[in-house]
Amino acid sequence: MTDVSSAPQAASDAMATTGAGQDMNGASAASAPAAASAPGAPSAPAVPSNGKKPWETLPVTVKVNGVSHGPMDVPAGLMMIDFLHETLGLTGSRLGCGQGICHACVVIVDHADGGCETVRTCITGANYFDGKTVRTVEGHAARDADGKLTLAPIQQAFLDHFSFQCGYCTPGFVNAATVLIEGLKRNPVARADLEAAITAGLNDQICRCTGYVRYYEAVRDVILKTPGCIKDAK
Ligand code: FES
Ligand code: FES
């Protein structure tokens, strides 16, 4: 039976071994413009005759971890996680499923009213964040003038509780837990409702190493130690 999945690779290999722009018989292939280029010359992107750019661009001005970026134009299809990684050099946000399911890639968007929420960067274009204020996992720890790093309480708690194994999901958990804790400071819950609040706050975060119990314990510890999160705290 023919392996359909390998056909494109086989064709590619054939092109590589016979020379780009030629078929197996040595005849010129369809890529005539490439054949017209001078040997060794860098290939220029095709520019349509109407003079427009080959892709649509959209504006982005965004504040990330207190630093303003832009204004700049980005490709309309550029996802925020690629903008963070490739344009801003912030590689802490993790690309997991890439389909909006695992929430490993979430960042925090801060709103003018003091509220905040997580947003999935693998399925959200960079342009969506135009004019917004964002926190990534790189924005939680504090570094003093001597370069000494102090982790945020939730980061320290995840370490203390051995919450993660590979750590791939951890940036997402840090951000989701931060949104949960800050939300509880604004709207405290009764102690009896805390477990449900933690579940609601972290339910979307998937950990392939199944560190849920220790993640949840760490978040509960931080909440109980954070003044103002529990209505009936003694
Ligand atoms: S990587 Fe974004 S939701 Fe999984
Ligand atoms: S610690 Fe490995 S995916 Fe969560």
Automatic annotation (TrEMBL):
Signal peptide: none annotated. SUPFAM superfamilies: 2Fe-2S ferredoxin-like, CO dehydrogenase ISP C-domain like. It holds the Pfam family Fer2_2. Residues 27-49 have a biased composition (Low complexity). InterPro entries: 2Fe-2S-bd (IPR002888), 2Fe-2S-bd_dom_sf (IPR036884), 2Fe-2S_ferredoxin-like_sf (IPR036010), 2Fe-2S_ferredoxin-type (IPR001041), Aldehyde_Oxdr_Iron-Sulfur (IPR052914), Beta-grasp_dom_sf (IPR012675). Residues 58-140 form the 2Fe-2S ferredoxin-type domain. Gene3D superfamilies: 3.10.20.30, [2Fe-2S]-binding domain (1.10.150.120). Residues 1-55 are annotated as: Disordered. This is (2Fe-2S)-binding domain-containing protein.
